[in-house]
Amino acid sequence: MRCVAVALPVPGLGPLTYSVPDGVGDAVVGARVLVPLGKRTVTGVVVGEPECVTERPGSDPVRPDDRGLTPKPLVDVLDDVPFLPASVVELCWWVADYYACGIGEVIATAMPPRAWVESERRARITDLGHARLLTQKGSRRAALDALEGGRILSFAGLLKRPGVGHATVAALERDGLIELTRPLRGAADASKTVRYAVLTAQAHDDEARLGRRQAEAVALLRGSPEGIAVAALAEAGIAADVVARLVRGGLVRIDRRRVDRDPFERDTASRGRSAVEQLTAEQTLALRTLCDRAAAGQFDTVVLHGVTGSGKTELYLRTAQYVRDSGRGVLLMVPEIALTPAAASIFRAAFGARVAIQHSALSDGERYDQWHRIRRGDVDVVVGTRSAVFAPLPDVGLIVVDEEHDSSYKQEESPRYHGRDVAVVRGRMAGALVVLGSATPSLETFHNARSGRYALVSLARRVLDRPMAEVRVIDMREEYAAEGPDVVLSGPLREALTRRVERGEQAIVLLNRRGYATVVLCRQCGDTLECPNCSVSLTVHKAVGRAQCHYCNYSLAVPTVCRKCAAPYLELLGFGTERIEQELRALLPTARVGRVDRDTVRRRGAIAALLARFSAREIDVLVGTQMIAKGHDFPRVTLVGVISADVGLGFADFRAAERTFQLLTQVAGRAGRGDIAGEAIVQTLHPSHYSIRHACRQDYLAFYEDELRFRTSMRYPPAVSLINVVIKAPTRPAAMHDASEVAAALRVAGFNGYRVLGPAPAPIGRLRGEYRVQLFLKGTHRTMMRKAVTAVMEAKPDLKRRTIIDVDPMSVL
Ligand code: ADP
Ligand code: ZN
Question: N or C: where does the chain have the smaller number of CB atoms within 10 Å of the terminal CB?
């Protein structure tokens, strides 16, 4: 009998083998199947033949001949054609292997919402059950009460009722008081449908007998042979009951038609953008290189290093048009659509309905529709965030990763993949051109360009010969000496803000830390307010009057007396964006000040709305976290202020300098994009740190050289490969003990290909109530390192569940 390997959406679980009974269909790779798993029946995806699976590292298929097990037959095959294209399944295998995680988790990432048909049994009360309800007692009564009035509950939901166990449910079913059903295929189609009224042939004959309203409706419908949406009829004054009467009379029938929910309906960013008529000389050259390489029709990677405002988006667009016209698909990846709406809306304007958009801020329904449009082949161009790298787009000829350095491409939960790196692999599998664009390429990417693995195309100038913003560094130690320790906005920044706003220009003020104050300190006993679950201090949010943990969301009302010594002398130290907003309002009483951070833009679409108001000049000064630093194009912004440019440098993270450099360069790049030259004012306590010095001169190459020297001497990426292993346990000694065991095993397993560092407490030693101890593997043989980690963890399944394996980590907290 034929067997297949099936991936299930269960964390850490390798593929399982099932036999394919006769008559259920082919179970091709990429098809969804229903399989038994323990007592449940669940949906999985066929990912290959069991034989091919044994060769995949990290997978643990249950094979017919091992352990004397015969594979169980699968229950049903849900798709005749692959639900996931085979090329996407292949990509998922690569990800599972490279990032040392279960194939099921990766497949789950690649799937659209509502694709997992859970076939759990559901319970419903019968007529008999209704009739006998009042005579029942105890758990039987509890179960029937829960189903009263026709409610349908899942089997599991029913078991949650007090006292209700499997025995109760079974007895109720046996007695005919409830019914257990297994809904299957029906739930799989979550398309939105619209009801259309359409005239039937009979309408001609019977028209004479109609009342006035009905006659009006028939007249309207006669003008639209393809029908009119019932909702549109209602708007035209024809109520639903009129339509219903026509349906009963046989004159009208109702068609349900699928419509795609359109996430662009809300999108206004593309309005008012003037088309670029003539490329600059630099752009023209760059475009020629990109198109030539795309025309070769084979895998190739180009780093597009262009300073802020050099017109990279226009190049993405024209290369995309070129590739699309040659008949191949285009994938544009962007860090976060809400923060970088420009690229998405420009593509929308250029490709119209042949574009699909994919990102997590869409509703499930929208994501479902967009995914299926791509899968049906209605789309040539996909614009999306990280997970769009798995889009089911056939024959991809071009993948653009915009702002490739952005850390949001890395998923910080399993599967911990990096969207940019997976994009390069997808490009290799598809024979596509991959373009990695940035003003501040990541060290890894630029290193690859330098070493010749990737080609390099540079844009050194801004379009229309606009100058780069002039950057001034303010040494805050001098400000403190002159004005005292409480100063937040330096003298020069206050002056510049006042001047610019008076002239009707706009300003951006960045501080990459939200909240009002970052520390609550008791002046009597020195106690600070810490999170009870995490080893971090609580941040005060004044507007809501609460002190909050930014890691686990624990919060309490801001106390007025010390919890330890009861002294009423609590001091608020440190500051975040909320405090800056208050300072700005005090400084500029007539200016309109807006704030963008995770406190002000919790709601979906709120960021876009705030940014649109800034764009429409309804806001003069915008203060915010790194959310405002990204690829926005606000031509009226002439001043950018950076408060505490060194916020990130305090973290024990080898990427701290790189992050600081990127943030400062990007935010300085927001100034002077219009006709008026821009300036940036950067406040710091470390004016001589190389990341700040080079960012102020916008000198990427100098930064790259210094940073590469640091990484090489400290043996960090890109000089070596890095894997971070974090072990979590309820106590620190337990975490330490387990980590030591893992470290010892890794050292035994470690040929000479890598070194193991640690164990040592993670920088945030306690998080959400768990103690965390970490290890690092450093070496030049990434494959060997990965295999060693996988092998060691497979041998300790109980530990594996408490362990995070992060290959190529972006942050190590
Ligand atoms: P980058 O992404 O490199 O920072 P953008 O692509 O956002 O830069 O371009 C900055 C601005 O310049 C945009 O408003 C864009 O429309 C405009 N632009 C791009 N190319 C040209 C050109 N050749 N001539 C005039 N304006 C251009
Ligand atoms: Zn916490």
Answer: N
**Cβ–ligand 1 contact at 464 (below 6 Å):** yes
**∠ at Cα 103 (98, 104), nearest 5°?**
150
Lowest-confidence region among 56-60, 176-180, 546-550, 692-696: 56-60
8 A C-beta contact, residue 331 and residue 390: no
The reply to whether ligand 1 has any atom less than 6 angstroms from the CB of 279 is yes
Rounded Cα–Cα distance for residues 295 and 293 (Å): 5
pLDDT at 183: 54
In DSSP notation, 69-89 reads PPPPBPSEE--SS-SS-HHHH
Rounded Cα distance between 458 and 311, Å, is: 11
CB of 71 closer than 6 angstroms to any ligand 1 atom: no
Closest CA to 628 of 339, 348, 425, 370: 339
Nearest CA to ligand 1 atom 16: 276
Ligand 1 lined by 627 (C-beta under 6 Å): no
Question: Cα(first)–Cα(last) distance of the chain, in Å?
Answer: 49
Give the integer Cα–Cα distance in Å for 336 and 791.
36
How many beta carbons lie within 10 A of that of residue 634, not counting itself? 18
- Taking the CA of 538 as reference, the closest ligand is 2
Overall pTM surpassing 0.90 (yes/no): no
Pick the closest to residue 435 from 300, 617, 583 (CA basis): 300
* Helix (H) or strand (E) segment spanning residue 774: strand 770-779
- 314 in contact with ligand 1, CB cutoff 6 A: yes
Among the residue ranges 9-18, 28-37, 729-738, the one predicted with the least confidence is: 9-18
Instruction: Band the pLDDT of 117: cuts 50, 70, 90.
Output: low
Give the pLDDT score at 318.
Answer: 96
Which pLDDT does position 409 carry in this prediction?
A: 96
